[in-house]
Amino acid sequence: MHLFRLISRHWSGFVITLYLALFWVSINVIFPLEASVFGNLSGIASILFLPHAVRVLSAWLLGPKVLFALIPAEIIAHSIWGLEFSFPVSVLIPVFSAISPVVGFETLRLLGYNVYPNSFTLPNWKGVIIAGIIASLFNSFTGAFLKGELIASDQVYQVIIRFIVGDIAGLIFCMILLVFIFRALDKFTASTH
């Protein structure tokens, strides 16, 4: 429980660290595997992009204030591992990526579907996935537009589809992984008492 209290006090550092760790895994493990199977578009858009899960789940838990962690995390990640883009594109890509999950949740909220967690209802996992899809659509179209200088015109739709598939697959993969982690923690906690 000490770990959870520490994380709750220092949420921004936790979000930044987790985001950078999963971005590193994506760049150094997933992208090379994809490139060997699917070709060179993996450097632009992955079909399993794990950091999208951090963006969506942290935006779900923390709301719009998560931008204080996601924008720096995106800028750091893109500065270290990103492709070379001209200014202002090099700043706009991480900013649009960071705001995408907030756009997803706020769009649902404005439509009358507030899926942010509260103490009165159970988590709305379908709502989280729908917000993640909206975030992915926003991120995909802005990302493909901003990365247009590196994408051949006949590959734009393929890149957009890969963005969407990668973001959603990363979100669902991490949500399933978290279910197994929390079940294991529950069993471990129950066996130690």
Please give a structural write-up:
- This protein is mostly helical and 193 residues long.
- It has a single domain, classed as Orthogonal Bundle (Arp2/3 complex 21 kDa subunit ARPC3).
- 75% of the residues lie in helices and 0% in strands.
- The radius of gyration is 17 Å and the shape is globular.
Jot down its keywords:
globular, about 190 residues, Arp2/3 complex 21 kDa subunit ARPC3, 7 helices, mainly alpha
Our measurement of the CA-to-CA distance between the termini, rounded to an integer number of angstroms, reads 14 Å
Give the helix/strand class: mainly alpha
CATH topology: Arp2/3 complex 21 kDa subunit ARPC3
Largest sheet: none
User: How many strands appear in the DSSP assignment?
Assistant: 0
**Second-tier CATH architecture:** Orthogonal Bundle
Number of folding domains? Answer: 1
Order of helices and strands: HHHHHHH
Please write the CATH class name: Mainly Alpha
- Mean pLDDT figure: 86
Relative strand content: under 5%
**How would you describe the shape?**
globular
**H/I helix tally:** 7
Helical proportion? Answer: over 70%
- Computed Rg: 17 Å
Low-confidence stretches: none
Q: Which secondary structure elements does this structure contain, and how are they paired or packed?
A:
Layout: H1 2-9, H2 11-38, H3 51-62, H4 67-81, H5 89-110, H6 125-146, H7 156-192
